[in-house]
Design goal:
Blueprint: H1 6-9, H2 13-21, H3 27-41, E1 53-56, E2 72-76, H4 103-110, E3 114-119, H5 153-160, E4 166-171, H6 177-183, E5 186-189, E6 209-214, H7 217-225, E7 256-260, E8 269-270, E9 273-274, H8 277-292, E10 296-300, H9 308-323, H10 342-353, H11 356-369, H12 375-395, E11 401-405, H13 421-425, H14 432-437, E12 441-448, E13 463-469, H15 475-489
Helix pairs in contact: 7-15, 9-11, 9-12
Length: about 500
């Protein structure tokens, strides 16, 4: 192998590890290749970059010998990494360098991954477009006039553009799966509790979950394999009941796929909107492919799923208002100067340090938790969450997996939805129910829009995501089904690589 240019870019992370183990590729050579690409294409908007990185390694870090072979890893900005800026996309943490590293990052480094860089994100993971970052928006490599999705948009764009072989993100209500769909890559949200949250700068603690963003399903399985497990530093983490296996399935014989009833109706209309025609057509084509691969497709009922978004935007802001109270200018991060007393210092620090969306959600959450409104809003939302989990449990007694479009739309134009928070929140319509239920879900690219759809560069060519969700701790079966479908789809994401 020559080890330069498209030879390296064509390799998935798993394939690169194989070449390193065979002695055909040097890990340092691979790291330098990706670091140079990240430096050239992943930084400043003014210089034509995608703005998907907030920090890139200066040199080649020493990696521990291990099964990940020294393959470089991009990590979302909200993961604490010792001695490296970990800012969660916010001015209030600008320049903050933690004294410790998040457990999942530490585990991957111990398995041989090398830290390539930290990726841009929506501030404190609050957003669906990566336009809420204090460090500027990330551009979608498929069409630079459009968003990459969020909040893990930097990680998704970096992998899609070939600036990193794989990346870590977090998913609170869809923040791995939705940008994966909009950028044409694979994004996996594992079962809640299967990965440690220690060292993740919190948004909503009962929902936040780390996960991989990768070029293919095998890479996602390999990263997950080295991340799962109980962590004594995180009381909500659990020991995974079985080892994660790399998927090899090529058929779906005997697999039962459930399609929510609202998606079986003409037009695929849902509360607040409808699925774009190009997404609807690609989703239905993927269902037909699943049938040809041996799957059975049937309609199911998720009676309370239409209320998931409303419940989520009570619960998540409520938890955020509590979690973000720690950012007060006293212990770390930004501190406003010139304040005459402690209260003024608090107010000015939070005024200057938080962006508009974060302030909006803090206010929403504080209101929902206030005396006289707790039962009416937060308590009721928790009841809806329980009903949604029960609906999924019932559905999984009839089918193996629930399938939906990952997003009702393809990547939209920068600035298109920033003035309309509700329109922005609707991007999470199909991903939030799984988050509230705590179950695993994966998004795989299932096709591109056609020129006749009138979206994308030159009238077409934007990726569409297909979401598969399973019961808690069904990751091995979920990855196997996703792999079989991926093989049949044969999606080619090379057009996005810069």
């Amino acid at each position: 192998m020559s080890g330069v240019g498209t030879d390296l870019l064509d390799l998935s992370a798993t394939q690169a590890i194989g070449e390193i183990e065979a002695g055909n590729l040097n890990a340092t050579e691979l790291f330098v290749f990706y670091r140079d690409r990240a430096l050239e294409h992943g930084r400043d908007l003014e210089r034509g970059g995608l703005n998907c990185f907030t920090w890139i390694a200066d040199g080649v870090p020493e990696s521990a010998p291990g099964p990940l072979g020294g393959v470089p890893l991009a990590v979302k900005d909200l993961f604490c990494t010792r001695g490296v800026p970990s800012q969660s996309g916010s001015r209030i943490l600008e320049g903050y360098e933690p004294p410790y590293t998040a457990t999942v990052v530490e585990r991957l480094q111990a398995a041989g991954a090398s830290l390539l860089g930290k990726t841009n994100q929506d501030e404190f993971a609050m957003g669906s477009s990566n336009e809420n970052s204090a460090y500027g928006p990330v551009l979608n490599p498929w069409d630079r006039t459009r968003v990459p999705g969020g909040s893990s948009g930097g990680s998704a764009a970096a992998v899609a553009a070939g600036l990193a072989p794989w990346a870590l993100g977090t998913d609170t209500g869809g923040s791995i799966r939705q940008p994966a769909a909009l950028c044409g890559i694979v994004g996996l949200k594992p079962t809640y509790g299967s990965l440690s949250r220690y060292g993740m700068i919190a948004f909503a603690s009962s929902l936040d979950q780390a996960g991989p963003l990768t070029r293919d399903v095998t890479d996602a399985a390999l990263l997950l394999k080295h991340m799962v497990g109980h962590d004594p530093c995180d009381a909500t983490s659990l020991e995974f009941p079985h080892a994660i296996e790399l998927p090899h399935a090529e058929r779906l014989d005997g697999v039962r796929l459930g399609v929510p009833a609202e998606l079986a109706r003409p037009g695929m209309q849902f509360v607040g909107g409808e699925v774009e025609p190009c997404v609807r057509a690609t989703f239905l084509e993927t269902l037909e492919l699943a049938k040809r691969l041996g799957a059975e497709v049937r309609e199911i009922e998720l009676a309370h799923a239409p209320y998931a978004l409303s419940a989520y935007y009570v619960l998540a802001p409520a938890e955020a208002s509590s979690n973000l109270a720690r950012f007060d200018g006293v212990r770390y991060g930004l501190r406003a100067q010139g304040a005459e007393d402690l209260r003024e210092m608090y107010e000015r620090t939070r005024h200057d340090g938080f962006g508009a969306e974060v302030k909006r959600r803090i206010m929403l959450g504080t209101y929902a938790l206030s005396a006289g409104y707790y039962d009416a809003y937060y308590g009721r939302a928790q009841q809806v969450r329980t009903r949604i989990a029960e609906d999924f449990k019932s559905a999984f007694s009839e089918v193996d997996f629930v399938v939906t479009p990952t997003s009702a739309n393809v990547a939209f134009e920068l600035g298109e939805k920033t003035a309309n928070p509700w329109a922005m929140y609707l991007n999470d319509y199909f991903t939030v129910p799984m988050s509230l239920a705590g179950i695993p879900a994966i998004s795989i690219p299932c096709g591109l829009t056609a020129a006749s759809d009138g979206v994308g560069p030159h009238g077409g060519g934007l990726p569409v995501g297909f979401q598969i969700a399973g019961p808690a701790f069904s990751e091995n079966a979920l990855l196997a089904a996703a792999h079989a479908l991926e093989q049949g789809l044969a999606f080619d994401g090379s057009a996005a690589r810069v």
